[in-house]
TrEMBL record:
HAMAP family: Ribosomal_uL30_B (MF_01371_B). Residues 4-54 form the Large ribosomal subunit protein uL30-like ferredoxin-like fold domain. Pfam families: Ribosomal_L30. The keyword Ribonucleoprotein applies. The keyword Ribosomal protein applies. Part of the 50S ribosomal subunit. Belongs to the universal ribosomal protein uL30 family. One of its GO terms (cellular component) is ribosome. InterPro entries: Ribo_uL30_ferredoxin-like_sf (IPR036919), Ribosomal_uL30_bac-type (IPR005996), Ribosomal_uL30_ferredoxin-like (IPR016082). CDD domains: Ribosomal_L30 (cd01658). This is Large ribosomal subunit protein uL30. Keywords: Ribonucleoprotein, Ribosomal protein.
Length: 58
């Protein structure tokens, strides 16, 4: 399957617990960390949930 790279650009400080948990689920919990995951509908939904804190790199 295709891979997708995600970089965390926003801080989880003052965010809800579910948004923090979503970042951890994506393998991101520190600023500027990059995670490479399979491009599935579930991962796309998680990215959409925290779109204001992440950016898709490639």
């Amino acid at each position: 399957m295709a891979k997708i790279k995600i970089k965390q650009t926003g801080s989880p400080i003052r965010r809800t617990k579910d948004q923090r948990a979503t970042l951890v689920g994506l393998g991101l919990n520190k600023m500027h960390r990059v995670s490479e995951l399979e491009d599935t509908p579930e991962v796309r939904g998680m990215i959409r949930k925290v779109a204001h804190m992440v950016e898709v790199v490639g």
